[in-house]
């Protein structure tokens, strides 16, 4: 009985810790997105998540360690989306899924996208290792797939890297420049507008590499 109660208390504490860490990371993501790494302070993050600063330091000893965790979480979400680029699927299906997932990330993880963009624009001082290893490896595998499609005559001959960069830039624009998009749209995009934007991006990309997005599959 005592062991059961002890296990339950331990489980509860672990759940509470996990919930608190998630709240801290959510708040830190917004603060870093708005102020950048240099402008963000641990006090501002503590205020944003409703914790005393001392409690924040209990979970994350420094701003650098907290920032690293925020970026790591963003990167893992990005990798999950990247897996939607199925290397075994038909070109249109693979690219449609990938573009749609990237657009969804821009809608649901706006602050995270901004943190990532700010980090890269400042020379990636914290995540350079991710760029040189995990991202490089993922990119090389997809470049190889796109080159295979070209060799098989399934898409137009283009440089695979330029295609990937264009997809990243276009989809992430909806997060990184969300204020501009919403200002010109006179308000946040509706679900129907997000769908239309996604279909527009897919159509332009697919037609640009010689596919007919309207053809029967």
TrEMBL record:
Q: Which residues bind DNA?
A: 41-60
Give one GO molecular function term. Answer: DNA-binding transcription factor activity
Q: Set out the biological process GO terms recorded for this chain's protein.
A: negative regulation of DNA-templated transcription
Q: Which UniProt keywords apply?
A: DNA-binding
Does the record bear DNA-binding in its keywords? Answer: yes
Pfam families, A to Z: TetR_C_3, TetR_N
Give start and end of each HTH tetR-type domain: 18-78
Name under which the protein is recorded: TetR family transcriptional regulator
């Amino acid at each position: 009985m005592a062991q059961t109660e002890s296990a339950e208390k331990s489980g509860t504490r672990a759940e509470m810790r996990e919930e608190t860490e998630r709240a801290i990371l959510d708040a830190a993501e917004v603060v870093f997105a708005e102020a950048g790494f240099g402008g963000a302070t641990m006090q501002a993050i503590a205020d944003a998540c409703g914790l005393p600063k001392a409690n924040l330091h209990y979970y994350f000893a420094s701003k650098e360690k907290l920032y690293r965790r925020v970026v790591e979480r963003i990167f893992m979400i990005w990798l999950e989306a990247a897996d939607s680029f199925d290397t075994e699927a038909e070109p249109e299906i693979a690219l449609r899924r990938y573009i749609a997932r990237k657009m969804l990330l821009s809608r649901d993880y706006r602050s995270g996208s901004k943190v990532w963009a700010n980090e890269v624009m400042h020379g990636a001082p914290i995540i350079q290792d991710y760029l040189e290893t995990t991202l490089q490896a993922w990119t090389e595998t997809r470049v190889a797939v796109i080159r295979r499609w070209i060799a098989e005559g399934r898409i137009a001959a283009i440089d695979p890297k330029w295609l990937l960069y264009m997809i990243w830039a276009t989809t992430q624009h909806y997060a990184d420049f969300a204020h501009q998009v919403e200002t010109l749209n006179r308000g946040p995009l509706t679900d129907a507008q997000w769908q239309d934007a996604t279909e527009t991006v897919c159509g332009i990309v697919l037609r640009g590499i010689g596919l007919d997005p309207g053809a029967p599959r």
